[in-house]
Amino acid sequence: MLPNNEVRVPHPRFAQSAPRDITAEFTKAASKLNTGQLVKDETFTLFEAVGALEIMDSKMDSGYIAPGENLAQALEDDYDVQRPLTPEEVVGLMDQLLCHEVAWHKGHPLSQTLFTSIYLDKLLWPVPRTMDDARFDRVPSDSPLVNLVLRAYCLALVKACDFVHLRVATEYYYEEEDFVSQLYNRNLLSAFDISHFHRLLDQAVSWVAEQSDIDQKLKDAIHCRLVFRHEFLSALQQDVDVLETRSAENFTSCIAQLRPLTETVTLGKPVPDAFSLKIQRKLASTVPPRPMVNITSDDALAHLKRLCQDAIDMQQMLDYTGPSNFKTAIWTLLSRKPQPSIYIRCLLQALIVSNMTILGAVPVKQFLYDELAELVLPANILLESSTDEVEVPSDPRFQIAQRMDGFMKRFAQPFVDTVRCPCLNRCRMRRTLCHTLVDWDNLQMEAEEIDLELRTLSAEPPLQFQGGEPTWSFPLSSWAYHQKLVQFRLILQMGFELSIYSPEELPGMYWYLSHICSTHLGHIDRIRTFTVAARKRDLMSTGDRSGSSSQKASAFHRSFHALERLTTHIIAVDAFAIALHALYVVLARHNVLPSASSPQAYSTDRLRYEIRMKPFIPITLPELVPYEEYQREAGLEGDSDATILERASKAITEARKAWEATLANGAFIDDPSAPNQPPPSAIEEDWKRDVKNTMRACIGTSLAVEAAKKALSTASPTEDKSLNLEVIVPEVGSKSRWHDWWVVPQVSEKKSKV
Amino acid sequence: MSNAPDLRYVRYENSRENEYVAAMRQLISKDLSEPYSIYVYRYFLYQWGDLCFLAMDDKDEMVGVVVSKLEPHRDGPLRGYIAMLAVREEYRGRGIATKLVRMAIDAMIERDADEVCLSSGDGCLIPKRGGLEGMVADLYVPGQIVLETEITNTGAMKLYERLGFLRSKQLHRYYLNGNSAYRLVLYLKEGVGAIRTALVDPYGLPPPAPGLSDACGGHSHANMGSLI
């Protein structure tokens, strides 16, 4: 079905031209048409058709006043914003506004959320020039509960929205998918300093405290709501300054207030009349009238709590301890379910890189060099040459520095982008990876060119394997290939997470995953071989004379350690994929694996393979597996069921061991210079939980393999191929789906029908 | 699934626009939070009325409709698109939607088979449809058919997957109600995936600024650009 929410952008008008009457021209032109004849402009697109409105249709034309409808009544509400409110109503209104605020955070437009509030409408329109202007009405209400307490709450809420809007709009997000930035010509009080809002909130807090005729419970309820607004505003104002302040104090206080707030929701009395869709008719917008979005208090408070907690936990990744730790922390935090809110994701983008600096402290160049040193070039002249030190153009070090500078300029941005990619929503992340994969394929080729030049300049001695051709390390392109293989694997795994694959594709997709993993493992072996050779050369040439030898030794040690961790992890993924592949092959062979497509389908397996491989077709390395080979390999042709299930058993045992080892390695590489390691952080706990869930999925797979073995052993060979098994493929989010990336089938004996 | 015997399947006719379009809009709008404008219907029916099929009951009331189009995809091969599919609630579960979709797909295949025949068989090299002169004949075979369906609409998803469609991607919050969608794709001939097309996603939202790739960090590319 077509989407019905295409962005409706008004066409740019050529202003300045004076209006003129075209009735005669129009009538003349129209008279040449037959009745019912349709004229379509060549350039009229589907996009425009979907965005078009039918004027005078009340469902589409938000400004349409029906015959007999009173203009004033159609546009204005009778609600009196000066009317005195009971404390219960104030609490109710605050909570209704909070729900609307969160709905906006979650991606709904202001016109369907906060801007349905008559109170906010009066505050913000006409645009207030001073803080004093920003009140509910020209004539102040007599009730301090309204003109002081509710007003302070509303103003602070709007200012909080201003901070959120500012942060999100300056980062990368998808309009209408992640967030709707439209303000409908309103201003979110951005000109006014936060101190005004804090002062008003303080006044309101004091006033409430002094009241003796308000029930204590309600006083407390109002109090915690005002304090929450105070703290939330401070927390949002801090924004990227958290890099300096390192303070989670405000967000922590927010969470502290959310508890009494949650407990007192029931005290509030909603005031539905204070919200109206009529306001939509006045907002400068080209969208049809759309319903108010109502989310529950429970949803809203849970969302806010998560936002605050994510912001607090973000503290744990602000200290830079090397590229792999940094990437692991970002990935883990952003993979939380539900995904962190758009505000958090945008704040993280800004923290990851701003002004060419990582976490406000590490220049992008250093970040890239650290990454290269960790994976391919420990203690290498390529990273140690610097133009600043050597100024003689004929010196190879000068030329190396120049080439490396060129490399840095070309690669820093795409590299940092791979780190920021998890800030996108999960769907966009996978799609973006499909695009960056192609970019990195090209980058790898460019890196090869630079490698060729560098190996001459650095006089790298080649390695020779068993009388073969001399082989060089190609460090930069090796690193680029590694990046690409990581992306390759992620695209496949995100496919499982987003439920892209149908059940009959599962054997093939897990085969492909293991194929990519084994390619990757081979590549890491190649890198390691060259690093070992470099280390040997280094030891022979410098001996113990050089003062920097211990530094060099630790650089090599770090790199070997990083490669080892990487290897363990990929072996774990590979072994698990091999096990699931094998299990699914047997289930598919015996027609007990559910299938989404029917025998009457238009498509063929070959065509479906082509669709699935589409992101990988343009990639030169690793080469696309031809369909025939894929069919042979993924179908395990020629292997008996027993052989395959034995393979599954062995692989899952190996997988469990490798995941144990991965867990033991930990999320982060310890900093050897730090005297004592900090206690495990919340991010680390998340990471561990993820690995443990994977291990649960391994156990589930073992059970499924055993069930299949048992059914196979009891099946009579004379009957048809089907086994007495029931296979359920658990959906993402269901209890039996231990991990999004591991689709473990539930295999059980079919209940015999009596 | 057997088709109800009391139903008649007909192809849309432009001459009966008045009666058909009104019924069609009513049928389709039922499932939408916000109606499509008349221009959306005209956009499809004016250009591809022959790819629209209707199911009528014994009283000649419309109970099902499929609306689709077929045109070159980013200057590449022809691509079919199933835009709307609706069956009246009390008629669901009788295979009407499947039948309608099959008719649309068959019509796309047939329509192009005709054109290939016309452009290579009888010496007339100008295809019937205007605006496409000069294209290579074999590009006329529709390479693929695509559509989107709401993630929660398991009925529709099952229907298309039974016909051989595969999910190619998930589209985050694609619909007005905030629900996500799947893009479903069916290839009808080999080699479609290998044809490289522009990276712009026609159904995705317009990029925030021209010249930025779909890759992440678009806005911030500006500050990355000052690298040199």
UniProtKB/TrEMBL annotation, chain A:
GO cellular component terms, semicolon-separated: NatC complex
InterPro entries, alphabetized: NAA35-like_N, Naa35_N, TPR_NAA35
Cleavable signal peptide: none
Subcellular location: Cytoplasm
Stretches assigned to the NAA35-like N-terminal domain: 36-197
Coiled coil: none
Residues in NAA35-like TPR repeats domain copies: 337-706
Alphabetic keyword roster: Cytoplasm
Family note: Belongs to the MAK10 family.
Protein name as it appears in the record: Amino-acid N-acetyltransferase subunit Mak10
UniProt organism field: Penicillium freii
From TrEMBL, chain B:
Range of residues in the leader sequence: none
Single GO term (MF): protein-N-terminal amino-acid acetyltransferase activity
Domain N-acetyltransferase, first and last residues per copy: 10-189
Domain of life according to the entry: Eukaryota
Pfam families: Acetyltransf_1
Cross-referenced PROSITE patterns: GNAT
GO cellular component, one term: NatC complex
Keywords for this protein: Acyltransferase, Transferase
UniProt record similarity statement: Belongs to the acetyltransferase family. MAK3 subfamily.
Protein name as it appears in the record: N-acetyltransferase domain-containing protein
Source organism per UniProt: Penicillium freii
